[in-house]
Amino acid sequence: MDKFNKLFFHPLFNETIAEINRLNVQLPPNPSDLEMDFHLYSYPQNGVLVSKVEDVKPYKLNPKNGEKLAHSGITICAYDESINKYLGLEGIAYLTSHSLIVHYKEEYFPLNYLTFYFYTRAKTYSDESNVIKYSTGIEIDSKKDYIRDRNEFIINNTPNNSILFVDGPLIGGDVSAHTLNLNDKLLEKNIIPLFFVKNSSSNLVTDHIEELKDKYNSDIHWAYNFLEKGEKTNLFRYVDAYNSNHSKIFCYIKAFNVSPQRVELHTKTFEKYADKIPVIFDLIYYLLLVQGDLKNPQIRSIGIAEKYARATLKLINITQIMRNAGIVPTMNQERFGR
After folding, report:
1. pLDDT 10s digits, 173-198
2. How many CB atoms lie within 10 A of CB 274?
3. Could you give the 3-state DSSP secondary structure of residue 301?
4. Where is the NurA domain positioned along the sequence (predicted)?
5. Is 214 helix (H, G, I), strand (E, B) or coil?
6. CB 83 within 8 Å of CB 260
7. In terms of residue numbers, what domain contains 161?
């Protein structure tokens, strides 16, 4: 665990801040929190297939089995991130804290990585700097940089032979290929990656099972009504009709009498670790109960990673740095930034 309990900065972190100062870029005095939410892109729009891996029925979860696995000596890891977004007159800045934690006996070992990027449509700024990024699609480019940094961070630091919980979908729009590549690299290290989606308007299940069609607003709506507390749905298999590698196994879990969440893993992961998957779902339920947060139900591991991510952002007084640079916010940033 020597590599943990550390905070790393992106190699160009300080240089990017220096360039913003040198170019007198006008960023706002306060950041706004950004949710790196890919759920709107969870399923490609070019046609999909869904099939049942198990009979469509609720499956009871056993938290005692999960507790036993949690204390068996297996390494459990989790990833989450926290992002501040700054809307400036000349462009948009993103300060991101990537957070990875490892359970070790009664302790959590954190490792955090801070990145800072500035994107602009003004070539006059990007042409003068090696770190100011010219972009005509800032939302997409910022997500690609985020995914690249996230993947490198996870691959380089997750211990071999572990279980890894990742906040976010396995398949999500333009970044799907990057996440699938991450999954392959993790499998090479005998790491079992599972991905969590807490909010989703997907109706993949309800659109493809005839008896459910037009009866529910979304899959989560169906799962909430279908499940009792402490249950999961059957497993479903999703395959992109045009790219068979874009495939996954997924289900919905309802730990409390609140909105369920989706847990998904790549088909390759399922095939390689099929015998371990049932008890891992029991582990997930156990960690949901341990966290016990009804307002924001998530597994303890991701909850701890999230806290480290948020705390790490506060270590950098980026607001003061922006003020020192003579920052002027956009009107919306002035109204809604915190």
Report:
1. 666 788 999 999 999 999 999 999 98
2. 11
3. helix
4. 130-266
5. coil
6. no
7. 6-336
